[in-house]
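Minutes, project check-in
Item: structure for the 319-residue chain
Input as provided by the requester:
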Amino acid sequence: METRLSPSLLAWLRCFEATARHGSFTRAAGELCITQGAVSQQVKQLEQWLARPLLIRTPRSLVLTPEGKWLGVVLRESFESIEGTLSQLRRAPRSDGPTTLSCSPSFAMRWLTPRLGHFMGQHPEVGLRVYGEFHALDRTRMVHDGIEVAVRFDPGQYEDVQATQFLDEWLVPVASPAFLAQHPELQTPVDLNPGWLLHDASPWDGGDEFAEWLHWFQAMGCPAPELKQGQRFNLSQLALGAALAGQGVAMGRAALVLDDIVTGRLVPLFGRSVQSHASYHFVSQRFPSEAMRLIEAWLHDEARQFRALRAQTLPAPRA
């Protein structure tokens, strides 16, 4: 029997693939920008056309049947291949143009940009545009927004894009010498007045506004104070700017504060670093271009050099 991929069948398959990947009609509807009812109806029509169930609907969840799992895998791989090819074709006419790098803003300003001269010197043939963004990424968003490659600071857990950790992160509270001179009583973590704390309220897309301080206090074996009393900012760069101005104590990420520590503009407190739950990832779609491979290799090399300097400057987190 001949099977043609009619427009209706393609729509049914797209809805089923998104549902199988998310395990939810609601999340699939959000990705496809249609209603939950429309997604459910499209999947039901596919099941009727195949004359077999693909999903077992329970009050709490959707469970794929063996046939549903098989079809879901085939569709996912097929759609990834199609989207990757389309992305390559869209880039082809402007292959001599610049490559766009979407990067977490604070990391772009304090770590990436000061090092870009090294990359430009090594690869003058590669044009590079950097955009400061920190929204979470998946395959659909990268294709839709035309994002070729990105750097993100987050806990990872990417599923449908290529993501490689190139730099881990150490957390250490920092303050200016002037602030410490005004508060000589600040000797141990329990001396931290919650009103002094400067928070990056968006450590990563979806991250809790107090996630880094809570993790640090837990690792130090100290109860966390009332964190809501401190100042809050939507970028780590802004919290660090307040610390540099003597307004309080910021949670420093080593990648963002090491230069200020080396020059004495900021002072690390309490003689201990804590391993962050988040790290820096190089994120790309499938089939990376030569420029993307060069950028990734350069980031890994710069990260290796940075880790060596970090180890000389800060105490390593305890295992």
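Outcome recorded: The mean pLDDT is 89.
No further action items on this chain.
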